[in-house]
Amino acid sequence: MTTLFIIFLFFISIFFVLKRRGRSTRKLPPGSLGIPIIGQSLDLLRAMRANTAEKWLENRIKKYGPISKLSLFGKPTVFLHGHAANKFIFTADSSTIATQQTKSIQMIIGERTLLELGGDDHKRVRNALMLFLKPESLKLYVGKMEEEIRMHLEKHWLGKQQVTVLPLMKILTFNIMCSLLFGLERGTRRDKLVEGFEQMMEGMWAVPVNLPFTRYHRSLKASKKVRDTVKELIREKRSELKGKGVTDPRQDLIACLLSIRNEEGEEALTEKEIVDNIMLVMIAGHDTSSILITFVLQFLANEPSVHAAVLQEQEEIARSKKSGEDLTWEDLAKMKYTWRVAMETLRIVPPIFGSFRKALKDIEFGGYLIPKGWQILWASSMTQMDNSIFPEPTKFDPNRFENKSSVPPYCFVAFGGGTHICPGNEFARVETLMTIHYLVTRFTWKLCADNSFSRDPMPVPAQGLPVRITQKKPL
C-alpha cells in the first residue's frame, strides 16, 4: 500500500511539473504592468480628457502590436485590437470570458447587471429586459416619448436665442427615462435622482481610491442614494401590484420586471438584479443617447448637404401629418437616412470608448497567454476609425451604412455584437429619431464653439456645444 502511494505521488508530481512547463511556454503579451494599483490608469484618463485616447492606444499598437499587457484601475489587463479581437470578445463562450466590468465600476453599478452575468442568468435577465425594450413593446410608448420631447422643447428651447445642447439633451433623456422606464413623474424626487445620478457618473472611470476627497468616493456615496431611490420605487410598484392583484406590465420597466414570474410563480428576478439592471439602464439611457443626439446636431451644423438631406426626409414626414397629429411607428421606419446619420455619428464619436471583460480561465489568443482573472480591454473606435475597414475614416459619410452588408461584421461595434448586442439599441433609435425630427423641422442652429471634445469618460463637446438657435415654426 505504501509503495502504491509513493508511485501515486510520483506521477502527481510529474503531472504538475508538466502542467507548469506547458503554461510557461505560452508567453504573456508584451508591455508593462506599471506601478501597482495605478498602473497606466492615469495616463489613459489624461489621454481621454485630452481626446487623444485613440492616439494613446495607437502608440501601444505600434510599440507592442495588437495584443499588449498593462494595468488599469487596479487590475492586470490585456488590450486587444482588431476585427479578429472584436469577434473573439463578442462570440467567446460564457465559460471563457465574462462580460465583467472593473471592480470599481461594479461597486458603483452592481455585480448582477447584464454586463456581469453569463450563461442562464444572462439569458434570464436579458429576456426580462427585452420584454419591455423590444420593438413590439416600444410601439406603445411612441406617444408618451413624443409628449416628453415637446414639453422639453417648449420649456428649454422656445424663445431662446442660444442654448447649450449637451446638458439640455441630458435633461431630456433623463425625463424620458424617468417617465417611460420608472413611471416617475416630474417633481422633487426626480430632481434629486438626477442630481445623485450625475454625481455618481463623475467617478465611473476614476482611479479607485476610496478616500473622502476623491471623485470615486463621492461617486460611491451618490450611487447609494440612487439605489435607495430605486429600491423605494420598487417597493411602491410591488405594493401596487399586490393592491390591484394584476397590473399592466407595459406600464413601465420596473412594473414589467416585477410582473415576470418563474415556474413556481415567484418573481423571476431578485430585487438586487432589478436594482442593478435599473442602474445599468439609467446609464445607457441617459448618457449614451444624449451624447449621440448632441453630436448629431454638431455634425449637421458642419455638413450642410447632410443637414439638407435629413431636413428633406423629416419635412416629407411632417407634411404627411395633419395639424397636431402625433408621429407613429410607421413614420419612424421612414427615417432611414436620418438613422444612417446617427450611425455615422456613432462610428466617429462612440459614446462608449471601450469596455472590459474578464478571463475566466487561461486563454490563448494571437500566440499569447491571457491569464485567468485578468481583465480584457477593447476599444470600439479602434476598428471604427480603421482606414482599411472604413476608407477616409475622418470623413463624415452616412452612406457608408446604406448597405449593411458592406460593413464587415464586428467592425462597427457601437452597440456591441453577437449575443451581447445592447438590448436598448431600439429604444435609443426611437428616442434619437423623434428628437431629431422636432429639432430639424422646428429650429435652425449655428455653432458657437469649435468642434473639439474630450472624454470624461464619455465624449463632451467644447463648452457642452453652445448654439445660436432660430425657431422656424411652432411646435
From TrEMBL:
Residues annotated for heme binding in this entry: C422
Signal peptide: none
GO BP terms: sterol metabolic process
Compartmental location: Membrane
GO molecular function, one term: heme binding
Record carries keyword Transmembrane helix: yes
Topology relative to the membrane: Single-pass membrane protein
Entries under PROSITE patterns matching the protein: CYTOCHROME_P450
Annotated keywords: Heme, Iron, Membrane, Metal-binding, Monooxygenase, Oxidoreductase, Transmembrane, Transmembrane helix
Short name of one Pfam family: p450
InterPro entries per the UniProt record, alphabetical: Cyt_P450, Cyt_P450_CS, Cyt_P450_E_grp-I, Cyt_P450_sf
Co-factor requirement: heme
Key word Transcription present: no
Highest taxon above the source species: Eukaryota
One Gene Ontology term, aspect cellular component: membrane
Family: Belongs to the cytochrome P450 family.
Protein name: Cytochrome P450
